[in-house]
Amino acid sequence: MPTGSCLCQAVKYDYSGDPLSKAVCHCLTCRKLSSGSSANLLIPTTHFRITSGAPKSYTSTHESGMKLTTHFCPTCGILLYKEADRKEFQSAVIVLAGTLDRAEDFEKAKPEAEFYVKDRASWWPGLDVQQLREFS
After folding, report:
1. Regarding predicted confidence, which is higher, 122 or 59?
2. Contacts (Cβ under 8 Å, ≥6 apart) of 106
3. Which domain holds residue 11?
4. Mean pLDDT along residues 53-65
5. Which long-range contacts (CB under 8 A, 24 or more apart) does 58-61 make?
């Protein structure tokens, strides 16, 4: 079972099963949240659980108009996962793959899609995966 945590280990999580989706996102919101494009795993809410600590949350409006709630460690500030009210993301959490604890789990997080390629930096190489220009 894959596990993940923040930098200070105060908040930990795990999930079961395979991700619904594995994608890199280049949108402005993800860039600001992660200091670059972010690798994300879409995990069914019923397969995800916080095993230690209690993350804080913050809700904002994504540039596509959806509400995005970020969940982060109250001690070290590391963003662990997000939730969105967009139909495609309901009943799921968007886990930041970089918070996975084990290298082998991170390796399995290889993206199958890129989101917001219209905002991908010219110096960021495109992946040979499904490309989505933006959320419409």
Report:
1. 59
2. 97, 98, 100
3. 3-120
4. 95
5. 60/29
